[in-house]
């Protein structure tokens, strides 16, 4: 399984336009058909060396549907706390309804739930106080097929 982190080269005008500039590949440990990045620290060190902000992350659900698990929600929270525009991309090639999704936690609804949650592993979350869903599909993502980007492979050779 592969987990990728990416950075946006330009964040223009808050939520209107974001450009994918770099993709960072990292080692992932797979368990129960879920994937967890195992060297996030290394990625963040490389990014800060280059003065880049992680603007989101992408991972696969090889045999599951396209959604954010409770673990994914906590990962997304850690990104969205640092950058409110950060997104979680899930690639789910075997989901017949949609093969990928771009998600974010609702703010303040989902962000408040995650901020107060200290559980780990797979667990359920309480409802949001304002009745909104915990996370939503991003409506502010623009696709630009011609953008140049750079892939940095941090995986070890093994
Ligand atoms: Zn997931
Ligand atoms: Zn939780």
TrEMBL record:
Residues 1-109 form the MPN domain. GO terms for cellular component: endosome; membrane. Residues 1-28 form the signal peptide. Keywords: Signal. InterPro entries: JAMM/MPN+_dom, MPN. PANTHER family: AMSH-LIKE PROTEASE, FI19924P1. This is MPN domain-containing protein.
């Amino acid at each position: 399984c592969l987990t990728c982190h990416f950075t946006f080269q330009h964040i223009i005008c808050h939520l209107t336009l974001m450009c994918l500039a770099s993709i960072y590949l990292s080692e992932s440990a797979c368990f129960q058909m879920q994937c967890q990045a195992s060297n996030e620290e290394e990625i963040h060190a490389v990014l800060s060396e280059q003065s880049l902000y992680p603007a989101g992350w992408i991972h696969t659900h090889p045999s599951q549907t396209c959604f954010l698990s409770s673990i994914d929600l906590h990962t997304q929270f850690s990104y969205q706390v640092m950058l409110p525009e950060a997104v979680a991309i899930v690639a789910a090639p075997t989901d017949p309804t949609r093969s990928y999704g771009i998600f974010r936690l609702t703010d303040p609804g989902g962000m408040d739930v995650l901020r107060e949650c200290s559980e780990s592993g797979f667990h359920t979350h309480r409802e949001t106080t304002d009745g909104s869903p915990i996370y939503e599909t991003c409506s502010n993502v623009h696709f630009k097929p011609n953008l140049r980007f750079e892939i940095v492979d941090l995986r070890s050779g093994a």
